[in-house]
Amino acid sequence: MKLTLKIWRQKNAQAKGQMVTYPIDGIDGDMSFLEMMDVLNNELINKGDDPVVFDHDCREGICGSCSMFINGEAHGPDRLVTTCQLHMRKFKDGDTITIEPFRAGGFPVIKDLMVDRSAFDRIQHAGGFISINTSGNTQDANAIPIEKADADAAFDAATCIGCGACVASCKNSSAMLFVSAKVSQFALLPQGKVEATDRVMNMVKQMDEEGFGNCTNTGACEVECPKGISLENIARMNREYMSASMKG
């Protein structure tokens, strides 16, 4: 395939960025999107130009690093996949593809398509954990009875990889789908009850301090989430927050 790539280039968070057009040829439909970017970067390096900086790690849809906004959609036109799992057969010969970083106040640009998502780490550190005894008196998890529906819902919430597609897709740059997934995975399990009140209060507080917006139930976050995290988690987090506020 022959393609025209319009890519956002920006030296750092303070620099003024711009869209730069790159023609590319010889792209196979079985290539992943990141492999296509590798081909472009090899061409740029051979010409003595700076390669396009983008984030990636596992390339298996697990780590959530490959955060790109492709033709106006987080992770591109496919559903329930990350950018590294997006294949070029989703595009046609002669297509123009616009590639931008995830844009949000809480995700400042590092360079080109790479953004700083450490805000998610700070939210997680604020309460996304449980305290358990690991000093030789640990109870076997299988010894704790849990309703299957609760276990399944907790597992579904835990599949969130923290990629930030929910933030990039939201008109308010809200991180509530991410935060609610991290709250839900513990709220549904007995192991998470000990810190339940502090967890939701601290994580929501940190989310607000990081500059993310609020949820207005548009639903774009759920549609663009590569793991299909449900909006039901936001409703659960709101209930947890209300309950914690009344206790506090």
UniProtKB/TrEMBL annotation:
<dbReference type="Pfam" id="PF13183">
    <property type="entry name" value="Fer4_8"/>
</dbReference>
<dbReference type="InterPro" id="IPR012675">
    <property type="entry name" value="Beta-grasp_dom_sf"/>
</dbReference>
<comment type="similarity">
    <text>Belongs to the succinate dehydrogenase/fumarate reductase iron-sulfur protein family.</text>
</comment>
<dbReference type="GO" id="GO:0009055">
    <property type="term" value="F:electron transfer activity"/>
</dbReference>
<dbReference type="InterPro" id="IPR050573">
    <property type="entry name" value="SDH/FRD_Iron-Sulfur"/>
</dbReference>
<dbReference type="GO" id="GO:0022904">
    <property type="term" value="P:respiratory electron transport chain"/>
</dbReference>
<protein>
    <submittedName>
        <fullName>Succinate dehydrogenase / fumarate reductase iron-sulfur subunit</fullName>
    </submittedName>
</protein>
<dbReference type="InterPro" id="IPR006058">
    <property type="entry name" value="2Fe2S_fd_BS"/>
</dbReference>
<dbReference type="GO" id="GO:0009060">
    <property type="term" value="P:aerobic respiration"/>
</dbReference>
<feature type="domain" description="4Fe-4S ferredoxin-type">
    <location>
        <begin position="151"/>
        <end position="181"/>
    </location>
</feature>
<dbReference type="Pfam" id="PF13085">
    <property type="entry name" value="Fer2_3"/>
</dbReference>
<dbReference type="InterPro" id="IPR036010">
    <property type="entry name" value="2Fe-2S_ferredoxin-like_sf"/>
</dbReference>
<dbReference type="InterPro" id="IPR017896">
    <property type="entry name" value="4Fe4S_Fe-S-bd"/>
</dbReference>
<dbReference type="InterPro" id="IPR025192">
    <property type="entry name" value="Succ_DH/fum_Rdtase_N"/>
</dbReference>
<dbReference type="InterPro" id="IPR009051">
    <property type="entry name" value="Helical_ferredxn"/>
</dbReference>
<dbReference type="GO" id="GO:0051537">
    <property type="term" value="F:2 iron, 2 sulfur cluster binding"/>
</dbReference>
